[in-house]
Design brief:
It contains two helices and four strands; from the N terminus they run βαββαβ. The chain has one domain: Alpha-Beta Plaits (2-Layer Sandwich), CATH 3.30.70. It is of the alpha+beta class. The model has no long low-confidence stretch (mean pLDDT 96). Helices cover 37% and strands 34% of the residues. It is globular, with a radius of gyration of 13 Å.
Length: 95
Amino acid sequence: MHAAIRKYRVTDADELVRRVEAEFVERVKGVDGFVGYYVVDAGDGNLASITVGENEAAVEESTNLARDWVGESAAELIEGAPEVTAGEVRVSTQT
């Protein structure tokens, strides 16, 4: 399993979350090997998205989709490029 965390500085978290739910979620769900997608609001204009995939290719495709979608649909809401961390999930647990 692999994951990517993208940290964003945003001007309007509520509007970005609305657009993500309305436009981006269905795109990322269509990625072969997709496991899960989460958006975390850390407050004070800081958002992070977490994508989990069965393999590295799924996470890489998700990251590319996110980059393209932001450029098409949300660039004015995001300050600068996101900080991206991606790699193999080494510990995982669920209830």
